[in-house]
Amino acid sequence: MAMLLGSILGMTSFTVSAAGGEGVQLFPVDINVFDTAALQQGARTFTDYCLGCHSASYMRFKRLAGDLGYTEEEVERYLLPAGQELTNTMTSSMSPELATKVFGTDAPDLSLVARARGEQWLYSYFLSFYKDEERALGWNNTVFPNASMPHVIWELQGVQTLAQHAETQADEHADGGHGGHFNPADQFELIETGLQDAEEYQRTVQDLVTFLVYLSEPSQLQRHQLGIWVILFLALFTVLAWFLKAEYWQDIH
Ligand code: HEC
User: Fold this and answer.
1) Cα 200 from Cα 4, distance rounded (Å)
2) Which residue, 34, 104, 113, 138, is the most exposed by fewest CB within 10 angstroms?
3) Distance 149 CA to ligand 1 centre (A)
4) What pLDDT digit, counting tens, does each position of 193-235 carry?
5) How far apart are CA 104 and CA 101, in angstroms?
6) Rounded to whole angstroms, how far apart are CA atoms 105 and 92?
7) 131, 138 in Cβ contact below 8 A?
8) Is the dihedral of CA 40, 41, 47, 48 positive or negative?
């Protein structure tokens, strides 16, 4: 029991430290993997904007049909890239060699990234790209400094730069402890508007992260549903066992 408790506590502290990054302030977000509309929207953003470079090689397109509330025809229409089969795994057409040549590093497989980085990190990452002429591709990121990935959904968000007062703001928030709500608007200034306003863009990113969280453990959808039946069974079984016990002891007395 003590060991079990210890490992649960150990896991919790691991999640917190992984989510916290190296002293980076992250933006709060609520992720609900049971929100089918969010999953569908996130999957579309993923196949439109990410699959070009990243794979999610533990996931088959076919599985998305049941899990995301789509029919197989809808998966074909909305998610399947040209030339791919439903039974294929979600693999990128870009080879690791080409990625390394273009970006200086491979674009990692994203199947488990939500577990490795945490949902808050991912959400904050996509809100924290800013224009930086000193970088080869013109982009930098406060959550992942000097990342070699460009801001691939900039046309949705627009272009932002680091706000002049960002550093002092960040210091104030750091002093305020973890409780204070850290706001992207404190840190960045939008210099070119995108196709979406700030609220719409945050929703797009939230949906994308919801899909990444689902991707990191697809069976969590079934596991949670199964859990309800297991509890119901246990409750029923307790009642049955109680009556059975009463029945047996009746003869013994
Ligand atoms: C143009 C190619 C390209 C596209 C498109 C792209 N990425 Fe990346 N991505 C990269 C590269 C290269 C890296 C490695 C960055 C590094 O390590 O410096 C990366 C890194 C990442 C990381 C950090 C992984 C880690 O844990 O270190 C995440 C998360 C990520 N990408 C998510 C996405 C998502 C989600 C999309 C779609 C919205 C996307 N990427 C689209 C090239 C791309």
Assistant:
1) 42
2) 104
3) 5
4) 999 999 999 999 999 999 999 999 999 999 988 999 999 999 9
5) 6
6) 15
7) yes
8) positive
Give residue 45 CA to ligand 1 midpoint distance, Å.
14
Query: pLDDT, tens digit, for every residue of 52-78?
Result: 999 999 999 999 999 999 999 999 999
Q: How many CA atoms lie within 13 A of 148 on its CB side?
A: 11
**How many CA atoms, within 13 angstroms, populate the side-chain half-sphere of residue 92?**
22
Q: Which residues surround ligand 1 with Cβ inside 6 Å?
A: 49-50, 52-54, 99, 103, 105, 107-108, 110, 113, 116-117, 122, 125, 147-150, 152-153, 208
Atom of ligand 1 nearest to the CA of 147: 18
- Give the position of tokens 């953003």: 45
Task: Answer for the pair 210, 33: CB distance below 8 angstroms, yes or no.
Answer: yes
Cβ distance 41 to 49 under 8 Å? Answer: no
Q: Which residue has the CA at smallest separation from atom 6 of ligand 1?
A: 50
